[in-house]
Design brief:
single chain; 242 residues; alpha/beta; six-stranded parallel sheet; 11 helices
Length: 242
Amino acid sequence: MEIRKDKTDRKETCQERHFTTLLMDMDGTIFDFDEAERQGVRRVLQLNGIEPTDELIEQYHQVNRWYWQAFERGDITREQIFEGRYPTFFWQLGIEINAGETEKTYRDSLDACAALVEGAEDLCAYLYERYDIYIITNGISGTQHARMQASGLGRYFKDIFVSEDMGSQKPQTEFFEACFPRIREKDRTRMLIIGDSLTSDIRGGENTGIATCWVNLVGEPAREDIVPDYEVHSLAELKTLL
């Protein structure tokens, strides 16, 4: 489904806007981060003698999400995410842990997981023939590059921009400004940001004057304060849009 910020205007297709360059998010858009996270949390819980139930994995997910959203707002540093998320989670369970060792266990599991959203490889192959594609992602550089290499998708992308390397994170304008010198296209009206996060990807597009496409795979409700130019609910629909 295509949507416009100005609902009174005629809908304008991606083809009519003549995009040449796609800035694509990684986790939750083409990579199944939820599955990678589940595998990592299961491993951590098992090593601490705890049955990895769905309820506990969801509890960790909420803690982790809070930390990443605080990071996106600029309220905490990247290091504070990794120093705090597992101690906070296990504190809720009444258990003390070694934060560094626990984080390493989780990170090792995450690095090895390259689970993809259904249709991701087909989409990337299709877009590769038609656009310059770049990855824009928040996260740890080593982890994101390792997962990209394990997935086999790296050959489709001109470059990979990870917040750790760029010195800032989505949706901050500093992140995108650090990316632009390495992007061949210089006209921002010919770029399209594609991602699953309203607060990270779509807000980032609003902050930098770049059109956006919200990949809403989970049926998240819309927000009045963050409105994408386009919205799709599957990668197959995204392929049709582009």
